[in-house]
Amino acid sequence: MGCSPTKHFDIVASKPRLKAISNHEKFFVCLADPCTKTSHSTFISEFSSLMEWSVIIYTTVLLLLLPPPCSSDDRLVPGKPLSPGATIVSDGGSFALGSFSPSNSTPAKLYLGIWYNDIPRLTVVWVANRETTAINSTSSSPTLSLTNTSDFVLSDAEGRVFWTTNVAGEASSSSSPAPAAGINAVLLNNSNLVIRSPNGTTLWQSFEHPADTVLPGMKIGIKFRTRVCERLVSWKGLDDPSPGPFSYGVR
């Protein structure tokens, strides 16, 4: 015996009721009634399309909510000191700048350095205060600050200075104008730590003050202005970044 149209499906097929019934309801009505003229293959095709759009929308929302993969701060500005335990990471995530302590040092000796951020074992490529060791204590921990005169200063709360650049001194002895407000220091993804003026001019960079490691982009030579010979100097020991007995450079 053939199936005869029901009153229910006559209502669904009528123009006034089509406006009141959503596509979702039509799908399930058509699937439930074996007498409907809409085939199951058509329903499956339309339902699959709907699910694909749902997945796309869900994925898009999820990606918008997730933080960017390289959201770490890669720069330092005046009034924002870098304390022990904190780091700044290059934009690409390859290098980090911060304080580190060699193993078996008691009391804890602190050095300001740059190391590979994506290698589990600490691998230091540059050290600032090699000649003057800072001591980490609860009463006076050393911090790195960028001054308004474009200088890095590593000092503690008691006023002891362990390391500083001399950007202000070099600027005063040359014809270069004093830097204006808006300076910043940025750690580049090649490990170069750069102090920049507001217009982007490089005022100081760690590549011109090498430690014991040469990295791509570095040049070892003689500074034209100061006639100072740049040299690589070995560590004193595996856990002692202070200057060692071996050096390499131009004389």
Give an account of the 3D structure:
The structure is a single chain. Residues 3-37 and 66-72 have low confidence and may be disordered. Helices cover 21% and strands 26% of the residues. A hairpin with a 5-residue loop joins strand 2 and strand 3 (95-100). The chain has 251 residues and is α+β, with helices and mostly antiparallel strands. Strands 2, 3, 4, 5 and 6 form a 5-stranded antiparallel β-sheet that branches. Strands 1-10-11-12 form a 4-stranded antiparallel β-sheet, with no helix packed on it. The protein has a 3-stranded antiparallel β-sheet with strand order 7-8-9, with no helix packed on it. It has 5 helices and 14 strands.
In short:
The protein has 251 residues and is of the alpha+beta class.
